[in-house]
Input
Amino acid sequence: MEMTHFDNNGNAVMVDISGKQVTARAARAQGTIRMSAECFDMVKNGGHKKGDVLAVARVAGIMGAKKTSELIPLCHNIGLTSVSIDFERLEDESAIRAVCSVSCEGKTGAEMEALTGVNVALLTVYDMCKAVDRGMIIENVHLDSKSGGKTGEYHFTEE
Output
């Protein structure tokens, strides 16, 4: 398989998608942020002085997904038709899992938008909570699934 974002001379290029068909596409990505028990309890119970951490992170993640082409240099600007950010509190690990699901009707996939949405949501949690715990760890960010386009379905499996 070849790298698609380079020309024959090794120069970076934006992939030409003009000949591709518009299809329904979707992607889902996830990642987690681990934190101290004190910080986790504060987020879980809504006791943070900056307000509802996860509500702010949800909006930030949605905004991040929408701005992906402004952040990733060779990424196409696509018209997302939906973006959602969901959180799962992992009590035993003092961690929060963020999941970003996106969809669009377009000529190119939405994997980067889902991955960007997750990262921005998790970074927002970090930003809002860093006064309580600077040792938080963002980890295991990955594409869970994607559908549509020439390559069809993809589902993450641990190897």
User: Anything to note?
Assistant: The chain has one domain: 27-146. The first strand starts at residue 23 and ends at 34. The chain has four helices and five strands. The chain has a mean pLDDT of 91.
